[in-house]
Design goal:
142 residues, alpha+beta, 3 helices, 5 strands
């Protein structure tokens, strides 16, 4: 009986360790993406923008809420001529809710329900997988 309890605890510890390692690797990938991409989802060419980390932050935010069991998507809004902004949304209780990362010295980085970063309404939506694929093509110059 005690062996089953120990095995279950070991399994839980291993699952949590795996999750922490995956999140750590993802955060490293985010830093690289922030340095390379900047903002936003630009189908033709990369341009400077107001918030140079929206691509990586939207990926992280959507992934965080997917891990919590929510359906997610990336909302793309045009915020200035030639500049788009990406922001993650999660479907919570049947409603699409914008997300944003917040830093708290006590809890660290969290992803929270928020409002749109810019007043412009999104003109298209992509799944997380579609968005990552699109951004990869931009990175490769395709």
């Amino acid at each position: 009986m005690a062996d089953n309890s120990v095995d279950n605890q070991d399994q839980i510890v291993n699952q949590r360790l795996t999750a922490v390692i995956l999140i750590g690797l993802f955060l490293l990938l985010l830093l690289i993406l922030i340095a390379i991409f900047g903002c936003a989802s630009l189908p033709v060419k990369h341009t400077a923008s107001y918030q140079p980390n929206c691509v990586a932050v939207s990926i992280m935010s959507a992934w965080t809420y997917q891990l919590k069991g929510h359906e997610t998507r990336i909302a793309i809004s045009n915020i200035a001529r030639g500049i788009d902004h990406a922001q993650a949304e999660a479907k919570i209780d049947g409603t699409w809710v914008p997300l944003t990362p917040l830093w708290n010295a006590q809890t660290g980085l969290t992803v929270e329900k928020w409002s749109r970063h810019f007043p412009a309404e999104p003109y298209r939506y992509l799944t997380l997988e579609e968005f990552i694929t699109e951004q990869g093509k931009i990175l490769r110059g395709e």
